[in-house]
Design goal:
Blueprint (H helix, E strand, L loop, with lengths): L14 H15 L11 E5 L2 E10 L5 E2 L2 E2 H14 L4 E12 L4 H18 L2 E10 L7 E10 L16 E4 L5 H11 L15 H7 L6 E5 L5 H13 L1 E6 L7 H10 L13 E4 L4 H10 L7 E9 L3 E5 L5 E3 L13
Parallel strand pairs: 5-6, 10-13
Antiparallel strand pairs: 1-2, 2-7, 3-4, 5-7, 8-11, 8-12, 9-11, 10-12, 13-14
Helix pairs in contact: 2-3
Family: Belongs to the HypE family.
Pfam families: AIRS (PF00586), AIRS_C (PF02769)
Organism: Geomonas anaerohicana
């Protein structure tokens, strides 16, 4: 294999993505250490703490059960800001359109973006549009960037997990990836699987009163829960132990994954977060999540069991323990 070529796997959010970042992109542009590689950058501007994030969306197909590329782009950047404990304020939007793309479909996407921004309480304040010749793009790509206000003194990031922390997820995992896959491949799925795409800033606002007990927030998008937990374990230098029987998985998602040989732990989510909470406040955090519409199926799925160089393992249904690593290659391309 020619190691000089970019592969689809470099966009998976997994091992190849991290290699591309660590070996080429970050050394050339910013030299941010592993511990500082979070969902958004924290900035201090004139004594005001701000979070800043950017993301690009290339999902295929652009319309899928439960959403489309437009609301996905808004929710994705809102959530990246929220994972730093920030209150999202405003977004920019950039479009790359392929010649021949339907104006009616663009209007539908724009309407969903407006609705998503209103639901999240953010303003779209600036943007850009470019058009490339037919055959030189794939219908529509969207970039969104966002700024949020950090209105507290808490230190919430991927390097703050501590031994004893409980790991909580706010609902079923893998819904988004399987919804997009079903639309792409024309799978006849009768279980009503839909993307979980949603703005999580309201749920995060309900968790912030936990104060210093709230250590880490992260949304497990590309690469799924497994890859995200591995990132946090590496950033914090800890061992995370999952309990397989506690993982909430939609039966339809579980069935499709079983048929196709996929692991829900590695399937993308767009409306889920992982929270690392001090053990004495874990039940309180769980109760807060379950009172919110986006957290009714929240569950404690594991804990930080020790210090290490960054290890994730899972206690299996049959009583064994297996290692959990980052996604290798590209399981489901063009998922977000």
């Amino acid at each position: 294999m020619n190691n000089d070529l970019i592969l689809l796997g470099h966009g998976s959010g997994g091992r190849l993505s991290h290699q591309l970042l660590d070996e080429l992109i970050i050394p050339q542009l910013s030299s941010v250490p592993v511990a500082g590689q979070n969902d958004a950058a924290l900035l201090n501007v004139g004594g005001i703490r701000l979070a800043f994030s950017t993301d690009s969306y290339v999902v295929d197909p652009v319309f899928f059960p439960g959403g489309n590329i437009g609301d996905l782009a808004i929710n994705g950047t809102v959530n990246d800001l929220a994972m730093m404990g920030a209150r999202p304020l405003c977004l920019s939007v950039g479009f790359i359109l392929e010649e021949g793309f339907s104006k009616a479909e663009l209007a539908r996407i724009l309407a969903s973006m407006r609705e998503a921004a209103d639901a999240a309480g953010v303003a779209i304040v600036t943007g850009d549009t470019k058009v490339v010749p037919k055959g030189k793009g794939d219908r529509i790509f969207i970039n969104t960037s966002g700024i949020g206000a950090v209105e507290h003194n808490l230190h919430i990031d991927g390097a703050s997990a501590r031994v004893g922390d409980k790991v909580i997820v706010n609902g079923t995992i893998g819904d988004h990836g399987i919804a997009v896959l079903s639309a792409r491949e024309g799978l006849e799925i009768d279980s009503g699987i839909q993307s979980d795409s949603a703005p999580l800033n309201g749920l995060v606002a309900d968790l912030l009163p936990l104060g210093p007990a709230l250590h880490v927030l992260r949304d497990p998008t590309r690469g799924g829960v497994a890859t995200t937990l591995k990132e946090i374990a590496l950033q914090s230098g800890v061992t995370i132990t999952l309990d397989e029987k506690s993982l909430p998985v939609n039966p339809g998602v579980k069935g499709v994954c079983s048929i196709l040989g996929l692991d829900p732990l590695y399937v993308a989510n767009e409306g889920k977060l992982l929270a690392f909470v001090a053990p004495d406040q874990a039940e309180a955090a769980l109760a807060r999540m379950r009172r919110h519409p986006l957290g009714k199926d929240a569950a404690i799925i594991g804990e930080v069991t020790g210090a290490s160089a960054g290890k994730v393992q899972m206690e299996t249904l049959v009583g064994g323990v297996r290692g959990v690593e980052m996604l290798a290659g590209e399981q489901l391309p063009r998922i977000c």
